[in-house]
Amino acid sequence: xxxxxxxxxSARLRxxxxxxxxSVHQPLLTPGCSRPCTRNFSNSDHRILQMITFGIVTRVxxxxxxxxxxxxxxxxxxxHKYKQRELERCGLDKLVxxxxxxxxxxGLYKTIPTRLLSRAWGRLNQxxxxxxxxxxxxxxxxxxxxxxxxxxxxxxxxxxxxxxEFFRRKLKPQARPVSDSHCVISPSDGKIxxxxxxxxxxxxxxxxxxxxxENFLGxxxxxxxxxxxxxxxxxxxxxxxxxREGNDLxxxxxxxxxxxxxxxxxxADWRVAHRRHFPGSLMSVNPGVARWIKELxxxxxxxxxxxxWIHGFFSLTAVGATNVGSIRIYFDSDLHTNxxxxxxxxxxDFSFAANNNKGINMRKGEHLGxxxxxxxxxxxxxxxxxxxxxxxxxxKIRFGEALGSI
Length: 406
Fold this sequence. Notes:
Strand content: 15-25%
Order of helices and strands: HHHHHHHHEEEEHHEEEHHEEEEHEEEEEE
Number of helices: 13
Largest sheet: 9 strands, antiparallel
Shape: globular
């Protein structure tokens, strides 16, 4: 009996909508009666009504979830910035030594379903915000991450229908002049984590924390598309990438914070011959985590673009991160990152050289791709031994500024 009454009440509430929920708690004025009369509900009816009302009121909506999760992330980011400022104010930021995480902690971190969470975050970013909510939400983001909207091609915040469009905003053409006097420029806005020569097949992700060059790029099965010899007497992976006498191998790591410009561009004039996609984890790549987890970039999902420039081997790798499962390469429509059909620990190759007999020619400063939030770009390239970087560790850099010169 109670079940049938609950079903009838539920049907009536669904038909009447939210107005019914409001009116059942209000006095009822009947014709010819000067005093309000109340509805005659039994105790069991009231209990059923409260349960149904609670279920409707507490129903989770995507917009609510987006606001709550964004607010939590903003709070965490502000707390992290506050701690960093306090360390710098006391002069302790360079004295704090973070020990590397043991294998069990890295394994525990990797059990967190960051790929699933990042896909969910990507869906939430596609939720269209009501017009009245756009300015408050975007202004909070601008204040938290220090975004300069005067550089945006469209400054009107009402123009961006969702967070994804706001993250991927374009810049005014004159906002980032490209250096013509240097052969290698920064492909993006960001912070320089590390740079220098590659030594002993190890690359530094931050000062003192390295990862394996071979684990990062994968086996050289793509060497037939490049001028890389497999007949060298040297056995090291690094030596096979150096194609010319008098050259050396260099690297540069650029971290893109959430407030940075999220598109990246070609850092030089070069030919992209091959793409390799590693569907790995999506752990955070902020500098604190990079100092804590060895070979962090080898664990994470990444897209390696390998090719050649005037001085030999050249590669650009876009590394994914938590909430940044989406890596887009404009000329590669077949690339789908953070897809459940790909298993971690594998890789997928595609040869542009074999597809069109020449590869993809990129001009310095040309649009190359984009992230959905913030992440990391790693450049590994061959250059003459007199190549020098014009950088300092930890400095902020913008797309188009010089990385180094010969």
